[in-house]
Amino acid sequence: METNASYGPARGQTKTLVFGIGAARSGTTWLYQYLKNHDQCFFRFPKELHYFDFASDNADNWRTEALMKKVRIIKKRSRISDQTVRAAAQLELNDLYDWLPVFQEKPPNLGNYLTFLTSGLTNERVFGDITPAYANLSEKDFSKMNRLHEDTRFIYILRNPIDRLSSHVRLVAKR
């Protein structure tokens, strides 16, 4: 299902669909956190939905397994005594439980994907999906993404290759 509509209750005010893409270790987590915490933006959990790079290619079950691992980790956080941490973990779990059936749906349904992105959207002007791996998609895929909504934008984050490599090496060394 392809669509080209405005979502949310604000009549006459077009919402903007944003796709955040970029190289690994280039700042997409910062972008996600910044937009998620901005009062004019609405971004659900998890940060990396991988709808277009995995769901549309009938990927193996490893991504579903990774999402289920994330569920287990968040469930542990939801048992922490700090009420703020518990509440945040519960919101993340709710989003993951909403996302799993959309992600696993075969064939993929763009309408359900958009419903997931916009479920809970109220007066915010921007909503979207921050998945760095979309940077590797084809022109055809980007065209499909662009047609999802009447106001679609792409943010491509780059980073100095030496800094990015250094950051990646530090990340691997921590593991």
Question: Would you kindly provide a written description of the structure presented here, covering whatever features stand out?
Answer:
The chain has helices at about 30-35, 60-75, 85-105, 110-120, 140-145, 160-175; strands at about 15-20, 40, 125-130, 150-155. It starts with 15 loop residues before the first strand and ends with a helix. Helices cover about 45% and strands about 10% of the residues. Helix 2 (about 60-75) packs antiparallel against helix 3. The protein is of the alpha/beta class. The longest helix is centred in the middle third of the chain and has 22 residues, at about 85-105. The chain is globular. A 4-stranded parallel beta sheet has the order 2-3-1-4, with helices on one face. The model is unreliable at about 1-10 (pLDDT under 50). It has one domain (about 15-175).
Topology of this protein?
Blueprint: E1 16-22, H1 28-37, E2 41-42, H2 62-77, H3 83-104, H4 110-118, E3 126-130, H5 139-146, E4 152-157, H6 161-174
Parallel strand pairs: 1-3, 1-4, 2-3
Helix pairs in contact: 2-3
- How large is the count of helical segments? 6
- Decide which structural class fits the backbone: alpha/beta
Largest sheet: 4 strands, parallel
Q: Which percent bin holds the helix content?
A: 40-55%
Q: What is the distance, rounded to the nearest whole angstrom, between the alpha carbons of the first and last residues?
A: 41 Å
Low-confidence stretches: 1-11
Mean pLDDT figure: 86
Q: What's the arrangement of strands in the largest beta sheet?
A: 2-3-1-4
Query: How much β-strand is present in the residues?
Result: 5-15%
Question: Multimeric state of these chains?
Answer: single chain
Radius of gyration, whole Å:
17 Å
Q: What is the strand tally?
A: 4
| Large-scale geometry | globular
What is the chain-wise order of helices and strands? Answer: EHEHHHEHEH
Please tell me the total number of domains. 1
